[in-house]
Queue: 4 jobs
Job 1
Amino acid sequence: MLKALKEIGLFKAIRFLLFEIVLLLFKLIILPQARVVYLRMLGANIGKDVIIHDVNFFNCYRKGFKGLSMGDNSFIGNDCLFDLADSITLERNVTLSERVSIITHLNVGYRDHPLQIKFPSVAKGVVINENVFVGVNATILPGVTVKSGSFIAASSLVNKDVEENTLVGGVPAAIIRKI
């Protein structure tokens, strides 16, 4: 624990603890509309008619909820995972099915971890443009932009940008066809 405290510092450790309390309170809210109100109170930019089911947040102590933006008519299914190490932007009419993961950072461990040389820490925001559907169990990695009108098939790993009006699927996700 001392190594972790030295790594992130006292301020970030306290911020981490405060956000854990905030997240615990979030988990107690069972109504999707009440979750929207709570997230707005925490600084998230959330549009009208948004439905948020049981989403899990982590790394909130880094970017915070001010890094979360959801446009009108968006839908977040159960068990989605949002990494708020950097920003997540969902424009209007975005649907995330169940268990979708949006990852905004990579960190292999402590600064002295041997893999840090080959895989340095990185944090990059994720943007999902309007009118996009993301299927069950899909994962979107740091720095990816999914452009308007696209469809991400279930269980896909999206590691690069998705062009407009495109169906992608697989691991890693590849173009299946234009739609």
Note: The longest strand covers residues 174-178.
Job 2
Amino acid sequence: MSGVFDLLRHSGARIAVLGLAAALATTACHKKSPGEESGGGIGSSEFKAGDGSKGSEGSQPERVRELATVYFDYDSSDIRSDARPTLKSNGQAIQAHSEWKLITLEGFCDERGSAEYNLGLGERRGNAAKQYLADLGVPAARMKVVSFGSADPAVQGHDESAWRWNRRVEFRVSR
């Protein structure tokens, strides 16, 4: 089932189907402690499951070389110390490029955990990066967070050597 999302790509736009959440939940490995909530995700006002929306002038959000990906530890949305210089550099690039109207922060997870949990964790990761950039002076109005959960892994595989590259936030630009 993890490859289902890969089949749903069309013309470079990512589509996440929330209706598959129940079916994908059977692949869950993450066990929540009593009282632990799944966090934002589906009910959050910032959540958009890869809506493929176009930028202000009709162009698809694009990756740019000036904005680097940041990575996260397992089951965590805390900004790692090695991600801080990357985020600082990304913040400087965003502030230097006023033609970048909207920066989309895309949160991703590894394959472990339920679909619902991973969507929430991806959102928390995106929001943590957004807050860090806002604290550096990047206007929050120029940023939005989208969670893809475990859909669209950067590296295929079922061990830590792949998972470490899939726990990430990527940046896309709408001009």
Note: The longest strand covers residues 102-108.
Job 3
Amino acid sequence: MNPRRMAREKALQVLYAMDVTDRWQEAGEHEKSLLPGEPRTSGESFARSLVNGVVRHREAIDAAIQSVATHWNLPRMNLIDRNLLRLSTWEILFCEDIPPKVSINEALELAKLYGVPETRRFLNGILDKIARKKLGEG
């Protein structure tokens, strides 16, 4: 598995833990438990930047998701789906060096591991709308 995919998987685990416990303000504590020590690799640094980016911009990310998630609201979504959406939406909106297609594909790959069969279609539809909206196509 490539280092960035592993970083996304670790970041998803941290975001999931924060969401389950509703302890967003304590992101550092969850991060320490799942990403111990100082980052030694670029993958570890990337995982930390993903977590910190989502935590810092969670309101804007959630608003972007909610604006395109027809007939769904965030609390109603499955925890994995919600946090995969947050992770990928942060990449799409705030990581200019990562093409939206890559962020979407990575979310779909993680959904194969952690989601239910319908997860990939659900994520793809929402993330595609977010990417199109960012590019002025939606």
Note: Helices lie at 3-21, 27-34, 42-56, 58-68, 79-94, 100-114, 119-134.
Job 4
Amino acid sequence: MTNLDLTHALYDAFSRADIAYVLGALDPQVEWNEAENFLYADGNPYVGPQAVLTGVLARLAGEWDGFSASPEKMIADNDTVACVGRYRGTYKATGNAVNAQFVHVFTYKDGKIAKFQQYTDTAQFQAAAGQVRSANAS
């Protein structure tokens, strides 16, 4: 399978909540970074599948209803795949929904995801979660 095929399979696994498949796609030393100021960026970088599971995936599952990451376009170049898509979901505690663009950049090593970087509209997620940040917050 190509890295592009692996990335398609990863999003398919996310869509059916196959977390075992997702974790199996990660290198044992994966370096996972959520976007700066994102709700789950507090643990950046998450290193290893267990850190990704507890720091990101479990929190998404516990805090959101109907959360999805839907790919719209993927671009592959050697060991890197970039995916443009949309997040959708409703934050359980507030009932606020998001419909936000994202870009995910995956770096592969030996058929596994070695690095992940997320880019998204963090302000939309903060608003959905009821978190208000001032323009001068660092």
Note: The first helix runs from residue 3 to 15.
